[in-house]
Write a structure and sequence with these properties.
Blueprint (H helix, E strand, L loop, with lengths): L1 H9 L6 H17 L2 H12 L2 H12 L15 H23 L7 E4 H9 L6 H16 L7 E4 L15 H6 L4 H15 L4 H21 L1 H8 L3 H9 L10 H12 L8 H13 L7 H13 L1
Parallel strand pairs: 1-2
Helix pairs in contact: 1-2, 1-4, 2-3, 2-5, 3-5, 5-7, 6-7, 6-9, 7-10, 9-10, 10-11, 10-13, 13-15
Protein name: MEI1 protein
Organism: Cephalopterus ornatus (Amazonian umbrellabird)
InterPro entries: Immune_Signaling-Apoptosis_Reg
């Protein structure tokens, strides 16, 4: 079925939402639900379809050509198509890298536009933000060096042989700019305050991947981002007044991040002791799977 469905997608236009949206969903789930042996073949089938990749390029570009005036709770047919497109491309990035699959057509994206879609949300639906962040995580994990993806933007052009001192840090973070990093972190912090479960999971995961990327590129910037004083205020904003308030997956993952990068001004021995106390008093068998996984990672990091 991958052959006819992917070929059908390649013959469509981005405005054919009624046909494209379920078709892209089918391709997405075909990648994720098949066996590992078949998964490699499925990736090869999709990446060999030039017309499909050209269609995906046009779909993603529609993200910055339209706004969502109805607000974050409303998902239109066009927004749903964008979600499917971003999730499918994120998956293709992941599996192309895993299997080193041959690429017949590259996707070209403006990194500034991608970042601005998250930084300046303009009432974008939550699911669309989550989908874009999923793509951003995949690109960050591969250091923006995937053979499937061509990144363009203000920081991608090769400048003069002798960069200015103010641009040395940007050069280290290439293709990200330092100001883009700080703006993205602030935006992610603001998104966490919404306390939407799906959004919180995506934001924390994106923040984790971003700091990992920064740590490889420039440790000083990574540690500066991880130790921002606003993180501490954000952390306690997320905590509810009920019992076991620290045992929330997104809170535990944030705590793990701060412990990993030794942000002692954000998380102190007192908070670590409180988490251990709450874990000791909890019925571990009754904890949700996400909480159990986050708690295990936290304890391993400590």
């Amino acid at each position: 079925l991958l052959f006819p469905v992917s070929n059908l997608c390649g013959k469509c236009r981005p405005r054919d939402t009624g046909l494209l949206q379920p078709s892209l969903n089918f391709l997405y789930w075909s990648l994720h639900q098949t066996t590992p042996c078949s998964q490699q073949r499925a990736v090869a089938v999709l990446l060999s379809n030039v017309s499909l990749l050209e269609l995906l390029q046009k779909v993603l570009e529609c993200t910055w050509l339209r706004s969502s005036p109805s607000g974050p709770a409303y998902l239109s047919c066009e927004d749903a198509l964008l979600c499917s497109g971003w999730l499918l491309v994120a998956s293709l990035l992941l599996y192309q890298h895993r299997y080193n699959t041959e690429v017949h057509q590259t996707l070209s994206l403006d990194l500034t536009e991608v970042l601005n879609a998250v930084i300046f949300r303009n009432k974008k639906p939550i699911l669309l933000l989550v989908s874009i962040m999923q793509f951003l995580r995949a690109a960050l994990r591969q250091n923006f060096s995937s053979s499937l993806l061509v990144i363009v933007g203000q920081n991608t052009a090769q400048g003069a042989a002798q960069p200015q001192p103010s641009s040395l840090q940007d050069a280290a973070l290439h293709p990200l700019a330092t100001q883009q990093v700080f703006s993205l972190v602030v935006s992610l912090q603001n998104l966490l305050v919404h306390k939407d479960l799906l959004l919180s999971q995506a934001v924390v995961a994106c923040l984790e991947t971003l700091v990992e990327y920064l740590y490889v590129k420039n440790q000083d910037v990574a540690l500066h981002v991880a130790s921002q004083p606003w993180h501490r205020f954000l952390l306690f904003t997320l905590l509810n007044a009920g019992q076991k308030s620290f045992l929330q997956p997104e809170v535990l993952r944030l705590m793990t991040l701060f412990v990993r990068y030794q942000s002692s001004n954000i998380i102190s021995q007192k908070e670590i002791s409180q988490i251990l106390q709450e874990a000791a008093e909890a019925n571990l068998a009754e904890l949700p799977e996400a909480t159990s996984c986050a708690l295990r990672l936290f304890l391993c990091q400590v």
